[in-house]
Structures
1.
Amino acid sequence: MSEKPAGLDAEPVISVRDLETHFFTDEGIVRAVDGVNFDVHPGTTMGIVGESGCGKSITAKSILQIVEAPGRIVNGEINYRRGSGETVNLLNYESGSGNMRAIRGGDISMIFQEPMTSFSGLHTFGNQIDEALRLHTNLAKQERFDLAVDWLARVGIPNPVQRMHEYPFRFSGGQLQRAMIAMAMCTNPRVLIADEPTTALDVTTQAQILDLLQRMQEENDMAILFITHDLGVISEIADEVTVMYLGKVVESGPVFSFFDEPKHPYSRALQTSIPSMFTSSRERLPSISGSIPHPQNRPSGCAFHPRCQSFMEGTCDVGEPELVSVNEEQEVSCFLYEER
Amino acid sequence: MLAFFVRRVIYAIIAMWAVSVISFVIINLPAGDFVTTYIATQLATGNLILEDEAESLREFYGLNDPVYVQYAKWMTRILQGQLGFSFEFEAPVRTVLGMNLLNTVLLGAGAVLFIWTVAIPIGIYSAVKQYSPGDYIATFFGFLGLGIPDFLIALVMAWVIFDTTGFLATDLYSAGYRTAPWSLAKIWDLAKHLVLPVVILGTAGTATLVRITRANLLDELKKPYVTTARAKGLTEWQIIMKYPVRYALNPVISLTAYILPFIISGSVVLSYVLDLPTIGRDFLRALTAQDIYLSGAVILFSGWLTIIGTFGSDLLLAWVDPRIRLEED
């Protein structure tokens, strides 16, 4: 990641505009995703960061239209640029339509947070990977089997032929995440959505999985949308970062600018709460005061204002800041940067 | 799989042995031995039985032996098919039970089949369309089925069927076919007679299984593997039938073993009300008459049928769930 990837200048492969996904619960409407904008460029990695409950996973599921009830996408566009150059708004497709199902697992694959529960324990691994190939390729049975075995070998699983006939409970967590990557990759998707794929794994396995994803990206020229709450992982894998707080984007820009000059007070607070090698071990780690508000009790104005170090009374608690460009690369939604 | 199978067979044999001991104890519970009872009944009808004859009867049935020898002899005779003599019917127990054992098995198997074919689809529908009008209707009838006693439904239904179609839904055979040799016509007649008791016997179990299928499936539908399947591009119907339904069926299968004793004991009252020739009806008569050999045999067979049913459901469970099948290897 020493230089800027060429893909960042290309037309985005996925462009999310004003996405709003709401949950219609008995207690009221929860605006889990509330006007989110970001682009994913071909061959690069966009990282979405945020605390639990900020809407990052729902954003990812919204792209594939697999948000569970009572969640529903109520507004926005998800523009997907096909290999042919044609751009389609995925939200024009019905969730259950053949067009949308061809995208799911075909053009855009997804891997998940808990590899142990993300497979069916009642079906062999071979059965589950074959399903993806059967849906998205025209290969014959034996060809599909060989291809699946090939992918298992590529993600670094020993004895792939034997593994095809085994049930998921015989795999370790790291192996299952590798297997899930193989299952997502075998259809040659143009975009991989990775929803906290390393969260449930120990640190050594995490590093291996991140390496694997980067290798897969290079070999297949694939875009990755990487969702995590772990800034360390972001610095490792992302080219660009989008920071979310309570369903909204608060900052976005290239990963270097994000770490060198975080603009939003929330981004700054997040970074100061990471332990550093240079602070003394006795020092107490700064943390962001307060906790995430309940989504039904959204603070007025900027949702972050009750926890913000730079809170300006009469401004932040009154109006909602817009996402504005502060320089060529970075966008921030904060009154500190708005002309008043 | 082999280890699993062998272990289950051993468990089943142990359970069957335990049931046989209990049956034997029950047979021997009444005061005095049954020869005393026999003499008393004979005396009441005016027949005099000499002490010699009584003694030879005691000798024949081994009543002078220690208890465990008696048990061993009784068990040996059972395994050879000699079930003893029913004083109430004045015929060997084997003759009395005969066809009725088969009728009971038919009725029980029919009820389980009915429960599965009705409860599983309705349960799936109720879970997938949670809180839809169809779900509420299924729930309503489910609780109705649980709440109304079988014998009441049986009487009402038998009357309604007779009143509207003129078909007498009691008994399992029409008068002409009872002793007739087996023929297609007799099987058809039996099938027609089986419908009502099977449905009634199955209502409570159906209601239970609908609720259980629904609850399990609702849990499973939220599991991450469903999201994985969805992200692959399967249709919603393919996803539901292949993954969560498979998971949700496990408890349904194991619960069948749990429901089985209720079906067999439930058939006692139902058999009495609808006059069905099952071992349940014989059982009630044997109990009221203190006919120990007959009631002992019925208890023994009811118990064994339940164990065999449970064994079958265990095998079925191992067949559908690799986690159970492979735990030993």
Note: The two ends of chain B are 8 Å apart (CA to CA).
2.
Amino acid sequence: MKIIIAGDGEVGFYLAKSLSELNHEITVVDPHDELLKKLESETDLLTITGDSTSPKTLAEANVDNCDLFLSVLHDESINLVTCILAKKLKARKTVARISNAELLQPKHREMFRDLGVDEMVCPERIAAKEITNLLSNTVATEFFDFSGGLLTMYLIRLEEGSEVISRSVKDLLATYSTMHARIVAVLRDSETIIPHSEFTFQVGDLAYIISKPNQLDAIKKLAGKRDVKIRNAMIAGGGRIGRYAAQTLEDNMHITLVDADHTRCEELTELLNHTLVINGDATDIEMLKDEGLLNNDAFIAVTNSSETNVLTCLHARKLGIKRTIALVENTGFINISQNIGIDTIINKKLITASYIARFIVKGDAVSSKWLSGTNAELIEFLVGRRSAATRHSIKDLHLPDGATIGGIIRGNETILPSRDTQLQENDRVVVFTLPKVMDRVGRLFD
Amino acid sequence: MSKRTAISHIRTFNFRLIYKLLGSLLMWLSAAMILPCAVSLVCHDGSQFELSISMLLMLAAGLFLHNIAGRGAAYELHEKESFWLTSLMWLLIPLLGAMPFVLSGSVNNFVDALFESVSGFTTTGSSILTNLDEVPRGVIVWRSMTQWVGGLGLIMFIIAMQRRLHVGGTHLYGAEFSGTIQRKLNPHMTTSVSLMWRVYIAMTIGLLAILLLTGNGFLNAFCITMSAVSSGGFLPSSAGLSDFSTLSLGVLTVFMLFSGINIALLYKLFTGHFADMWHDEELRLYLILFICGASAIAVSMYSACITLPSAIGRACFHVASTISTCGLVLPADTSMPTWPLLAAIITLLFIVLGASAGSTGGGLKLKRVMILFRYVQNYLLSMVHPRAVAKVKIDGRVISNEYINKVFAFVFLYMAFAAGGTLLLTDSGQPLASSICLALANLSNLGPTPLIHIADPTFCYTALPTLSKCGLIVLMLAGRIEIFALIAIFSPAYWKR
């Protein structure tokens, strides 16, 4: 697939790197010459120095020949203009990164389509949504719904006392044959493992579990987790993520929002209705305690500094806060943060990439989720007419190593497949896959 | 050199325009007097001559001010002049409006006439007339009409009529409604105000039509309509509301309630933007207060031996009349000799709170009360959380500190005027309880309320000493133009160069 990325920093570069690893033809348009040189030396792609709002630069990047145009600069108005220009210059599909979530409202969608902006992604909004989801479901470290909740993926840390510890997959399949959930992958010491039948589970494993709806109670028991109801939450950092999170949460729980900038605090009081806005530095733990940190069930650190977020979360964890979520922009930190005990990491780049990936995967990918801490991906495919996958039962499909079918949605019915299940046209298949085999998997369903 | 330039920046006070605007307002008022004259002719009440003279006097004064004193005025109006015009107008118009009372001999002296006239224009409704049935009908009609003209405010009349004022209209609006902030209905001030007038007129015609259809005589229906929609409160005859049917009284309750709602919101009601109305916090508070107050008073009346349906009906009418600062009073129920204490206390509270900002009613205005309440809430919060950043918000919009200061200043002045008025009235021999009620009722432009008669059942304004009457006139004016305009022109800083 020919992809042009207009960017001015990390998100664009991250996307460019991850997409070029998937063998797409990537062209990066960026105003910073120096950064581009560095990128080109590290990755196999084409770079063009210039302004993405200039038709000449766009023509240079062969916009008329591109399948996907991503504009992910920081300034949303530049992104919108770039996408409009790209569309007029015959780009097939355009995606703009935006920062004002208001534009995402369904009633504006048609208007932006007409203008030439096919899709919009607001990383801050998605991150905030992730936070709300995580607070409403305190068992899982991460979770993701497919097909409107017919199938759900949970990432759960296996605790002491879990029923699956030291048992093999074969053993478990026999004991829990009636259970509507299945472990599809395990993350152990930064390594992604797709468990074979002799695999045994250990305490501290992060298990990816695919489940039918309403199985959470059973899964909780399985993983040795206890549920916590979140009534009070403290958010450190009043940037867009903090603001959107507070906005969605403030009606259901008591939110305290801490930001160091007084002017920003004043703006926040205008935007939020029931949130208590505190002007103070989040690194000052004594101050946080003064403002009732210990009364909170959850602590969410979303300041601009990943280090601050990780450290304050660790501190909160040590003080006994049940749930901590940290925004970590530095991808290198993600593994280590999870190992030292922070519940959940959110990363804007990953989120944006996750979202954008659904436009990229070959075959008819309906939705996809890039998982943090692993390079694996969960993709929902629509099985096409005459696709190779419908010809044999699963055991004869020769799925590549590093890919496994987690679940099938047929109409309104959810099927957890066995080796003898036969795929049909129009099935939606959720596949857990490592990047190296992603293309082969895609071809199978095309 | 610096001195010269400094002087050249000082604009001369634009008196000419003020005269011109006053003149035009007077001419309109004299035109409005055609109606009382006509009524007088039809009813043969013998006052047509006096009314015509008043009309001609007003016309002459208007012509003089408009064409001679205000000749060649530049249409440029700034804040300073706006305050002056507002205050001058509220003094001059009631003065000329008092003429029919003096000339027709309905009152004994000039102060009484002025009291009646000010009470009308400020939509207070306190009346000095003791035997209404002996007063010529024409004068009664004029008295009712003064309320209607004053209902939206005399300034609003000028703004709607003088399209050439442009931004001056905004200054004028600010001078009269110094306490209310709201978005204009239209980018043009003149058009916004015209839209408000349309709502006001539509309400008037609606109520008049319903009252006529429910079988009331034209004169009675007309005068009561004027009293209700303007939140005035004058009664046209000594029989009062006793010959009104239950249905008519129900309709009156609803319209009185309307008169206490922000006119801009009523416009939204007429244009079908119901969601906007419901989202308005002030309106919600207004309705909640009405329902709670009416229920509480109904219960306390029921326990004071009135039948339940009658208690509910009376309570609703009374609360609507009080909270909108309308001041229409039902004839006393003989089975309830005195008002229950709870009902009296709630009434007093409502008198002080008053109606919505931007309505025809008076009082502190609910919006101001909400702002103060939230400010205090934030203050308490900041004692627990010293680092908390909190702002006062109404309808999701932040209220600036500058505006909050203004609200505090207003409340202080309101209390000061109330205290001063009470002092003056006790000094003239009124019992303290009724002095407080009188001062507050007149300052809030409520006027008649059963509360006045609790302490002194035989009270009437005629018996008050002249000084007290003058004091009440000042209270009524202050309440109507929200004090600031009145204070401003008397402060030395205003006249300093």
Note: The first helix of chain B runs from residue 2 to 8.
